[in-house]
Amino acid sequence: MADGxxxxxxxxxxxINSNGNTGRLSEDDGLEQAAKxxxxxxxxxxxxxxxxxxxxxxxxxxNLNETSIVSGGYGGxxxxxxxxxxxxxxxxHHSSSSSSMTAEDAGRGxxxxxxxxxxxxxxxxxxxxxxxxxxxxxxxxxxxxxELEAQIELLRDTKRKYENVLRLSRALTNHFYNMVQTQHALxxxxxxxxxxxxxLRDEFGYNAETQKLLCKNGETLLGAIxxxxxxxxxxxxxxxxxxxxxxxxxxxxxxEYDAYRSDLEELSLGPRDAAGVAxxxxxxxxxxxxxxxxxxxxxxxxxxxxxxxxxxxKVMHKQLLLFHNAISAYFAGNQQQLEQxxxxxxxxxxxxxxxxxxxxxxx
Length: 363
Prior knowledge:
Layout: H1 2-10, H2 26-45, H3 49-59, E1 68-69, E2 82-83, H4 94-136, H5 146-196, H6 201-268, H7 274-331, H8 335-344, H9 359-362
Helix pairs in contact: 1-2, 1-3, 2-3, 4-6, 5-6, 5-7, 6-7, 6-8, 7-8
């Protein structure tokens, strides 16, 4: 009888409901009654073996918190076993959803930042345009530094005059280059006629030599003039232009400062309620920022104007001396002084008597 009960217990299926607890079947009552009957028989017979076996089956049964869901009966094969630890709920997508939310928040932050930048730019442009129109029609006040404004106007006038010197110097270079090329061609023609006209050989000969000498001195003078033009071009289109760019930034900062200053003055005339006081405080902060920027750029312009004036005097002193000495030596026919002038200013040309064309002809 004990063996029959053990066999029945070993093959009994343990159903699990949706909450993971064991269900109650009609066979459980019979199993419990059989167990009680067997216990009584064991006590009477003094045999503990069958009772211990049955008790072991009842006590050491499967732990529902650690067991697996078995498709067959209890003690069956492991096929179709699904470990309960591998069953996960909706938390499987928590990581991916969190990263998606982080990327979305970052994109939203960038968009808000760009929107704020555009908003500030639009407000600043509106204020500056309003200030510019007010100044043009004489209704708005502007901050003026009379001494600095005079220096800026003098620089612009100087730049216009130096640009004219540069334009005329380039025209002189082009005309003189054409003359040198004509002299070179004329000298070759005289030399050819000297060989083909025996009766005028001497006359064509010394004219050919004269034109060749003039051509050589002309190339030397062209080297000096080109150096002069290059230096003036650097002074006008780089040094002066750099200072004028700083001046333009200074003038923009002055306009912005006056725009925010005028806005602060208008707000100061308005009501002094809580909202009005808050707007005035914000306007004072913006105005102070623009004032600091304006004063910083004004200091930069003052320093650059000072250095520009010193550099201009140094460069023009050297270049005007070169131009004068080279022109004087050329038209005086002093070849030695002309070559000495180029050496003085470290201007190098082709060696005398070289067969290849001059560097000017290769341009």
